[in-house]
Design a protein that fits this description.
The protein is an alpha+beta fold and 74 residues long. The chain has helices at residues 15-32, 59-72, and strands at residues 5-11, 37-41, 44-50. The chain is globular.
């Protein structure tokens, strides 16, 4: 967590592996109706979750983080 943003970084052997993760996270986020910030560079993916209204983190952001963790695993 950094300030009012939850984030998690992942490292993969290839860009394609990172894109596969982004696709899985995006599908879950669309179903949930909230959208994390996703960035990819070579084999590195960063998922950032923040409140779009800048009102601090709420249960919705925490729940989205749990959904991302469920997609990714420990």
């Amino acid at each position: 967590m950094a300030g009012e943003t939850l984030y998690r970084d992942f490292v993969f052997p290839s860009f394609e592996d990172g894109m596969e993760l982004i696709d899985r996270i995006a599908a879950e986020a669309v179903d949930y109706g909230r959208h994390p910030d996703l960035s990819i560079s070579a084999g590195h993916v960063r998922v950032s979750i923040r409140n779009p209204n800048h009102a601090g983190l709420t249960q919705a952001e925490t729940r989205l983080a749990q959904k991302v963790n469920a997609v990714v695993g420990p």
